[in-house]
Design a protein that fits this description.
Layout (H helix, E strand, L loop, with lengths): L1 H6 L5 H10 L4 H23 L8 H18 L8 H19 L5 H21 L5 H8 L3 H15 L18 H10 L4 H20 L2 H12 L4 H8 L3 H25 L4 H4 L5
Length: about 280
């Protein structure tokens, strides 16, 4: 087998996946798949590096990213119709974030800043039934606009988890992201009620994106859909990288507040109120 693979360095990826699917212990096929997709680890590390403290060891994060890639290759099933690149990026990103948490990459001050802004967004939205602009948000927080920018810079260390950001509260340790909630509901949606709730969460996410100011929505689209780095977005928008980081952080806090409000206002179904009802 090793001889055959060495003679076919240009073997189609579909053939490699078929060999691995037929023989999960096929080390040669696995190694070729890893080699072909190591660039995904570098790309995800590049996206993360711009938002984490300089003292964090990038080599450790890269190593964890490789572990995530290996896990993705082990669990991926091409017959499910999901593109491997998208599947692997999620596993790689998650592995690096787990390592970042263990390294203490998000200081308490950053969590406090994120909570302060999130609470201000929630208060304003509940009172005015709309999202505040920058000046209104600064007034709600009770600081000048320049100080708001500094708070957003600190909060960006929390928001670097994007929709992977901790949804259990700034002072809790157990991760529970909005994205993970939606994915968990999708995976466990054996019952019609579970499927309905998962669909509603996705609908809230789409509505929340539509409600964002244009520049903030553009940052999220470029970062998460186009997979651009912050410096690339800054160049495209002709602003500083720190400004993009501020917009990114604020957009995610707005989005989280929007989804949480929509969930609170959702009318529970009869089945949710009484699961034993026929």
């Amino acid at each position: 087998m090793e001889h055959i693979l060495q003679q076919e360095p240009g073997m189609a990826e579909a053939d490699l996946w078929e060999r691995l699917r037929s023989d999960r212990e096929n080390r040669e096929a696995r190694e070729q798949l890893v080699e072909r997709h190591l660039s995904l680890v570098k790309a995800e590390l590049g996206r993360l590096s711009a938002q984490i403290p300089s003292h964090i060891d990038r080599q450790e994060l890269y190593a964890e990213g490789v572990v995530g890639l290996l896990a993705a290759i082990s669990h991926y099933d091409p017959l499910q119709g999901v593109e491997f690149t998208s599947y692997a990026r999620r596993r790689i990103w998650g592995a690096m974030l787990d390592r970042l948490r263990s390294l203490g990459g998000v200081p308490r001050s950053s969590r406090q800043a994120a909570r302060r802004i999130a609470q201000a967004l929630q208060r304003f939205n509940n009172r005015e039934n709309r999202q505040p602009d920058e000046a209104e948000l600064a007034a709600e927080v009770g600081v000048p606009i320049e100080a708001l920018h500094e708070l957003e810079r600190q909060a960006s260390l929390v928001q670097c988890l994007s929709l992977d950001c901790d949804n259990t509260g700034p002072d809790q340790e157990t991760p529970g992201s909005l994205a993970e909630q939606i994915e968990d509901r999708d995976r466990n949606a054996a019952q019609p009620l579970d499927r309905l709730i998962a669909q509603e969460l996705r609908a809230h996410l789409v509505d929340g994106l539509k409600a964002l100011p244009d520049r903030e929505r553009a940052v999220l689209v470029l970062y998460y859909h186009q997979n651009l780095m912050l410096k690339e977005i800054a160049a495209a928008m002709q602003v500083s990288e720190s400004r993009v980081s501020q917009l990114h952080s604020r957009a995610l806090l707005r989005l989280k507040a929007f989804i949480e409000k929509a969930e609170r206002q959702r009318v529970p179904t009869n089945e949710e109120l009484d699961p034993s009802a026929p």
